[in-house]
Amino acid sequence: MVTLLNLLAALALLVWGTHIVRTDVLHVYGTQLRRVLSHSVSRTGWAFAAGVGVTGLIQSSNATAVIVSGFVASGLVALAPALAIMLGADVGTALMTAVLSFDLSWVCPLLIFCGVIVYLSRRSTRAGRIGRAVIGLGLILLALDLIEASTRPMTESAGMEILFSTLTGDRLLDVTIGALLAILTYSSLATVLLSATLAAAGVISLPVALCMVVGANLGSGALAMMSASRLNPAGKRVGLGSLLFRLGGAAVVLPFIGVLADGIAALGLDARVGVVGFHVAYNMLRCVLLLPLVQPMARLCERLLPDAPDEGDAVRPRHLDPAAMDTPTLALANAAREVLRVGDIIESMLVGLLPVIRDNDQARARIIRKLDDDVDKLYTEIKMYLARVSRKDLADAEIRRWTEIITLTINLEQAGDIIERMVRVIESKKIAKQRSLSDEGMDEITELHARLLSSLRLGLSVFLNSDLRSAQRLLIEKEAFRDLERAYAKTHLVRLAGGTPQSIETSSLHLDLISDMKRLHSLFCSTAYPVLDAAGMLRRSRLSTQAGGGESN
After folding, report:
1. Residue 458's pLDDT is what?
2. For residue 441, what are the CA distances in angstroms to 357, 427, 488, 500, 509?
3. Which of 61, 101, 342, 477 is most buried when burial is the number of CB atoms within 10 A of its CB?
4. What sign does the CA torsion over 173, 178, 183, 185 have?
5. CA neighbor of 436 nearest in space, from 508, 360, 372, 324
6. pLDDT tops 90 at residue 496
7. Are 204 and 181 in contact (CB under 8 A)?
8. 452: Cβ–Cβ under 8 A, 6 or more apart, which residues?
9. How large is the average pLDDT for residues 432-440?
10. CA 165 – CA 172 distance, rounded (Å)
11. pLDDT tops 50 at residue 402
12. Distance between CA atoms of 30 and 279, rounded to whole angstroms?
């Protein structure tokens, strides 16, 4: 019993080590890795190579699947290159398994010792995260030694011999056990290394180990499917295509497992080397042969998983992937993309506002009210998504980015409410009473509207790129807009004093509109403050007191 507990503890340590490496590498290099994957899709070969490199670094084809599925679900990457990336991911996992299978026991204490020192001394920094990843590598190597040590008594135990004898003779059972282990441990790498170690210790036979390796590949494919379960059909197709490729490979190789096992034995290879070598050769041969078939597989997946019927007015988040929660950097990137989508909706509302003012367009007014409901829904989704991001795992720069995202989300939601209120006021004070603005007043509103639209687009650009020059332009535009709003308020009063009938009828509406436009403009310009603050360019004035956003009157 103690021996079995030691084995389970060693296996848990192996899983934990792979988890630490995956999480911390993605935390440090997640943005760069996403960029590599998204920019390597022009050619199938480049996509395949990107999958190999990224997965080899993070030691998890499942993490790669999560990233790529999110890209496809968002329409950023086509399905065919995504499947090529997944084939590369399988090869990357196999290569890392081969590297970790070497006798690196002398490296293990060095990795753990150095990693702990770096992590404890630089805990909240990028270097601290890298130190944790180094610790994870050391734990993987330590776990492999512990598994080997704990399995030696099993070879001498009659009970264990009877237990593991159930894994002989039924290839389908062996494959199923390998798949279940991969799913339970969330790592095909850990399952393959475990199978190799058990085979080397004589606990299981070589054919059983090879079947478990094939099963581990299938389990990894099933994990990719489960990770994409909350995505739209486009995102789910990545996992489906990867699983079908794996099933095809398994169907071809399983009838020859006995022959392959005999061949490995005939070569006189150590069982551990033979299992790992089979894993590498099997995945490389399978993926290279299947690479030309990514286009037909993409078409098959599109037929098997067609797009969902258009739900009409329903609006749902496109980029808030729950699977990215384990990697806060990726989660923040997803939230930022969704906020930009909200910004696009606000722009649509703003574009539709002018015909409502000028032409009494009630159809546009109804559309704007509907769009505000969409903004409110997405605002709630983004807010709840960001609340689930663990801030204790974020670096200082990421905490600032978290604050910027939530601030812009709030400001855009307020902007949507202001525009919707403006529409209702226009309906009650202008459309219902069949009134119109004076020509001069309409020209003023048109000018302010054009500046407002331009500042919204510039503000979203500043949020996305953090460009200092654009941020400075935004503040200059804010001052100019404030001066223009004051000037137009005065000219309206002049027309009012001159007895212009239209100005008299719509005086309250006109002043309300330019005041609300000023408030909107302040909200749009708030993205400039974090950029200027980071550059040390905010004056110790009322501007710096408003660096968190909001309006200034």
Report:
1. 93
2. 11, 18, 8, 11, 11
3. 61
4. positive
5. 360
6. no
7. no
8. 350, 481, 517, 520, 521, 524
9. 77
10. 15
11. yes
12. 27
Collapsed DSSP state (helix, strand, coil) of residue 109: helix
Contact 291, 44 (CB under 8 A): yes
Give one DSSP letter per residue of 260-284, joined into a string.
Answer: HHHHHHHTT--HHHHHHHHHHHHHH
Higher-confidence residue of 118 and 35: namely 118
The continuous run of DSSP H or E covering 397 comes out as helix 396-426
Count the neighbouring beta carbons within 10 Å of the beta carbon of residue 12: 13
Q: Mind listing the pLDDT tens digit for each residue in 95-120?
A: 888 887 776 677 888 888 998 998 88
In this structure, the chain runs to a length of 553
Closest CA to 144 of 180, 184, 196: 196
Q: Mapping DSSP to helix (H, G, I), strand (E, B) and coil, where does residue 458 land?
A: helix
Please, what are the domains in the chain? 2-304 (no CATH), 322-546 (1.20.58.220)
pTM strictly above 0.70: no
Percent of the chain residues topping a pLDDT of 70: 84
Rounded Cα gap, residues 263 and 259, in angstroms: 6
Burial of 244: CB neighbours in 10 Å, binned 0-12, 13-18, 19+: middle
